[in-house]
Amino acid sequence: MRQVRQGMAFCMAVVLTLVITACSGQAQVTAGDTADVRVVNSEKGEITIPARPARVIGLSVVYPEFLQALGVTPVAVQNYQEELPTYLEEPFKDTLKMGIAQTPNFEMILSANPDLILAPTWWSAKDYEQLSGIAPTVLLPQRDDWREELKDIAGVLGKTELAEKVIQDLEAKEAEAKQKLDDLAGSETVMYMMVMKDSFILYGDQIDRGKFLHTTLGLEKIPNFPDTDSSLSISLEKLPEYNPDHIFLQLNNEDDAAVKQTYEDLLNSPLWKNMTAVQKNQVYTMAGKDWFNLGMSPMANSYAVDAVLQVFEGKSK
Predict the structure, then answer these.
(1) Apex 155 CA angle, 128 and 60, nearest 5
(2) How far apart (Å, rounded) are the C-alpha atoms in residues 53 and 44?
(3) What angle do CA 8, 14, 20 make, to 5 degrees?
(4) Is the pTM of this model over 0.70?
(5) Is 77 helix (H, G, I), strand (E, B) or coil?
(6) For a surface tag, which of 30, 50, 216, 317 has the fewest beta carbons within 10 Å of its beta carbon?
């Protein structure tokens, strides 16, 4: 009888051990599930997202670039141009192209099977319910500085330190380029010019492209550009009044027939042919798709730095 009781006690101990082990294992699984999600702040309050999202979509034209700069290739993108910028063609070669970014393409977003959607509130607040029905959607605030937008996205992805490094690396690259251009261009004047339908816009140092050329890279602007104006809209007849040594030229819309006609008329005009930059073969045509996000994205800025350096280094050879 004593041996039977000992055997029963042993069996109960084994069973109890198995139950405890099973319960312990179940607790670990639950903890693992909790570790698989994070709670982040958004314009809609706290949102639960995957801790390690693998299929991310960034809506708006710049969010895909922010994601790529942070080492996350989006699974789908929309764009404001027919084609992606040159610097995104290779990294986005396997990314689903959802067309022109006028409104979210919900059908294609759904087909991309995202596990996280990031979007600026100014562009996607009205579509939040539909987007959040597809995947956890984080709406982020509108910012005046792309650096703050990058940090917002980095905060969601847990990549804050990487965002700081992206910013610091770009600033170092810009500073190095500025020093090189001081030697290459000296006091020669530079102007950024946009071809519109039946008119031209000249950029000063207070707005995107002009600020990039004249402040970030330190290139000399034309002396008679009004300090009170960020840009000037002028006719062809007024163009010779602003006569720089170098012109960076861009068509506002390379697919627009009226814009292309204005450009053709410009090239055939004696007024244009007699300008200093034209005479010296120092007019540099920049693709609109490659300069579209200039001043709004670290990748666009980095590409533009390389493009400007290439121009002036080529002139020095």
Answers:
(1) 40
(2) 19
(3) 135
(4) yes
(5) strand
(6) 317
